[in-house]
Amino acid sequence: MENVVKNYRLFHEKATLIENILGKSKKEKFAALKGISLEIRKGEKVGIIGSNGSGKTTLLKIIAGITTLNSGKLLTEGKIVSLIDLSAGFHPELTGEENIYINALLAGMDRSEMKSKIKEIIKYADIGKFIDAPLYTYSSGMKLRLGFAIAVAANPDIIILDEEVSAGDEDFQRKSMKKIDEFVREGKTLLVVSHWMDFLKKHCERIIWLDKGKMVADGGMRILNRYQSGGKNSG
Amino acid sequence: MFWLNNKQKKWWDFVLAMTEKEIKSRYKMAVFGFLWIFLNPLLQMLVLGLIFQFFVPIKTINYFEFLFPGLLIWNFFSYTITKNTPMYINERALIQKAKFPRESIVLSIVFSNLFHLLISFLMFMLWTLLVREGVDLTRWLVLPIAVGWLTVLTSGLSLLFSSLNVKWRDINFGVQAIMPLWFYATPVVYTLDLLPKWIERIIYLNPMTAILGLFRWSIFGMAISWEPIVISLVMTLIIFVTGVVVFKKESPFFDDWI
Predict the structure, then answer these.
(1) Is B28 in Cβ contact with A89 (below 8 Å)?
(2) What Rg value do the Cα atoms of chain B yield, rounded?
(3) In the listed set A156, A171, A189, which residue is the last one of a domain according to the structure?
(4) Is residue A109 part of a domain?
(5) Are A216 and A232 in the same domain?
(6) What are the helix and strand counts (H, E) for chain A?
(7) Burial degree of A171 (CB within 10 A; 0-12, 13-18, 19+)
(8) Which helix (H) or strand (E) holds A182?
(9) pLDDT (tens digit, 9 = 90+) per residue, A20-32?
(10) Does residue A145 sit within a domain?
(11) Whole-prediction pTM value?
């Protein structure tokens, strides 16, 4: 596989909200991202920061392919797994094992890959005999473990992390951090949205600062300091 | 399926897995489980049959027997479309969080209901074989075609309504209002020869008319006029293509509206 360069180019605006109120045709356009262009290369570890509503999640959703651009261009290479919500595809009435089946396909595995990895997933999730129980009997921590185990088994080239990495108990946190470090060492691309500065400091080497749909800064770790002091000044 | 390439195979795997999930989860907490797929049309047959046998004169076969396969097919159609219309809203959690072929949600409902239809239909056919005399088995060869047609029609309408319902939630109310009317615009409880001739052309605009006609022709040997079937066929194509086009246009932006 030649997977050397990854290009992301986003231009212009993306209208996300056009409300049509009962024939009054009152239209309101809101641009979540206003002309952002960036290129992320394979193996880069990028943290995305910005205040609430600055377009971080929209950017990740576009990269993950969950939503589509209104204009501009997006190019991605390799398998993307988004950890925006680990338990998105879970069905409460089905057992853990049945849920692995559907979520593994959702994470981009094919059937044979899933079959060869199912033992590994169950072992990594470490939820004991609950694996045969319906999902509504699970605690939220167990769901998180199961979801993370599936996402990790998918062996993605690009990993997208939202805030959720900071959830779960200490044991799980240690385990998931270890796995993310492992991915980083393997040269996988990492994209993180977080307000958890310590995490960004530890895992990222490039920071993109978004504000109101525009890119404020793109560069090294020093941006983090600027962002933090700027945040304090403005209150 | 060896003739598919990797991407298509993956797509089918996903749609089938979603269908399996749908089938497995449907009757999980129900004591009667799978019995419901038979119980439901059976009850309908008893109630509707009790009333309508006095209005609809069918000489060749028992009215209850005439009613049953029609109800199975109609229930598949109406239940699938009613369930599918608000489906993208109901599954918003999944759509906002993951990338996957969006049509699989709608298709999994179609296929899981088709699975249920086939089970109850097979049981009905078995009963027909045991009870009825002079069954023309060669005509049964048409049945797979009729089932295929029904699936295409149902998928097309499901895609159309569910895609539009993402932006205009009125569609859901509209479908709920139309379905009971559509039931009477389809010859489920009656036969076409009870209607005046001029209405025949119009009623074939409803593709369900032709589909039910095909089923009854092959199971009961009831007469069917072949020319107006073309009208139903053209209507089905128009509906299916519209459904697919609207879905393709809308589906990349589902996340923005839910």
Answers:
(1) no
(2) 19
(3) A156
(4) yes
(5) yes
(6) 7, 10
(7) exposed
(8) helix A170-185
(9) 444 444 445 666 7
(10) yes
(11) 0.82
